[in-house]
Amino acid sequence: MIAIATASQKGGVGKTTLCINLAYSLAKRGWRVLLVDTDPQGAVGLSLAKSAKTRDGFYEFLMRGGDLNRIVVPTRLPELEIITAGRPETCSREGWAVHEVPGRLADLLRAAELRGVDVVLLDTAAGVSGTTEAVVKACDFVILPQQAEPLAIRSVPHLLETLARFRAEGAGVRVAGILLTMVMNDQAMSVKVARELREMLPANLMFQQSIPRLPSFLDASALGVPVALTKRHPPPEALIFDQIAAELEQRTDLYKPTEKEPGHASLMD
Ligand SMILES: Nc1ncnc2c1ncn2[C@@H]1O[C@H](COP(=O)(O)OP(=O)(O)OP(=O)(O)O)[C@@H](O)[C@H]1O
Ligand SMILES: [Mg+2]
Q1: 213, 189 in Cβ contact below 8 A?
Q2: Rounded to 5 degrees, what are φ and ψ at 81?
Q3: Which of 6, 10, 16 to mutate to test the pocket of ligand 1 (most atoms within 8 A of CB)?
Q4: CA-CA distance, 34 to 32, in Å (whole number)?
Q5: What is the value of pTM for the model shown?
Q6: pLDDT of residue 262
Q7: What residue spans of the chain are helical by DSSP H?
Q8: CATH 3.40.50.150 fits 2-249, yes or no
Q9: 12 lines ligand 1 (CB under 6 A)
């Protein structure tokens, strides 16, 4: 099992959109996925499940621990399950022990592994301090969604330095990749920033695939579904997340062919 967090310094860069759509693509590709909403705003839960605000979730688990299976919510895809954020406001009123958070996160990941989960994908709030810092440090990998805008040239190195500090402090988290989001291919500035980032960063640090800015992503959030489910047959942009999922499998060693596995399937008997 691997645990992957998203992280960004700035808000609104497309983390939640990525998490919902990537979780769906990974599940469709046959992985057992647990999508965990660690954002106190509860964006994943609120967009996917109407009852999200009334059930216990991630924050109740952080505060009290207990049986993880109780807070796992199924979806129509058997391979995809979700843990909503819960009610962080109640949790903070009851007071909570910050020093217990890393242990609880480790418990959560262990329980997910016992459940048979292949990938835990954790959506985070903007910024990399507080709970998000603990979440990123607990994970094996982090994906860094980055908007294609001039500020990125300064903010990406800064974020990479922060992650290097986490590693120096003993965390094992590695960067799965920087993922450009909201790219406007018809805007010279957006294309220029994308090119400059690729030139500036070590080879292979960025996902080959980027996410264009498209109105259909807004429509999907409004409907509360992955973009693949906005039409009876998935629209072309849904394939973007299949491509990101396939890249992620390579980047994280999620897919390791074994001696026992033939590595290919037969089409007929
Ligand atoms: N590629 C895209 N094209 C167009 N709109 C997008 C795209 N990605 C995200 N959006 C929209 O932009 C807004 C912010 O996206 P999202 O909520 O995924 O960002 P976030 O990084 O999770 O934000 P926060 O930091 O507040 O949690 C949403 O309304 C979403 O529908
Ligand atoms: Mg979000």
Answers
A1: no
A2: -125, 160
A3: 16
A4: 7
A5: 0.95
A6: 66
A7: 15-28, 43-48, 58-64, 88-94, 101-114, 130-138, 152-168, 188-200, 215-223, 238-252
A8: no
A9: yes
